[in-house]
Amino acid sequence: MKKLVLLLCLSLSFLTTQAQDIIFKTSGDKVTARVKEITPSAILYQTADSLQSPTLSLAKTEVFMIQYANGTTELIKLDLPTDTLGRAVQSSESLFLQGRRDARLFYKGRGTFWGSAAAGATSLFTGGLTLVAPVAMAVTPPRLGTLGVPDANLAQNQDYLRGYRKQAHYRKVGKAAAGTGTGILASMALIVGIVLAVYL
User: Fold this and answer.
1) Domain that holds residue 29
2) Phi/psi class of residue 148: alpha, beta or left (left: φ > 0; alpha: ψ in -120 to 50)?
3) pTM over 0.70
C-alpha cells in the first residue's frame, strides 16, 4: 500500500512539473505549448516539449481559445473593423469561423447523448439492433430549433449559420458516440455486477 501511495505521489509531481498550456485552434486542432505573449494580431508560444525551442506564432484569427496550465481559459476575441455606425464589419469567412466557435460553446445536444446512451445500454440485450438509433442520430444534422444560437441577429446570416451548423453537427456526432459508449459500458457493468452477485 505504501508503494502505491508513493507511486501515486511521484506520478502527480511529474504531472505538475509538466504543466502546459493548450491552444485550441479554430480548425479544431490543439497545440500543446507554453504561451509567452498575446499581441493584437498573434499568439507567441514555445512548444511544450522543450524549453529551448524557438518562439513560434499563430495568427489570432486561427485561435479560438487558450487553456492555461493553471486551469483558466481565455477566449480569443478578434478586433474587427467597424462601419460608420460603430458596428463590427465581418467577412464571410470570419462569420463562418465565429459560427463554429459559438457552436463549440453553446450547442449542447443533450438529447443525442442520452438517446444514444439508452440505445447503447440495450444493445447487448437486442443483439446490437438498437445501435441503428445512434447512427441515425449522428448522421442527421441538428434541427434549427435545437441549435441554441446565442444571437438571433447572427442567426440570420447564412455564413454564420453555416459555420454554426457544421460545428454543431460535429458535436452531435461526438455526443452520439460518447452516449453509445457510455450506454454499452453501463450495461456491461450491470451484467458483471449481476454475475458477481450470483456467483459470490
Assistant:
1) 19-75
2) left
3) no
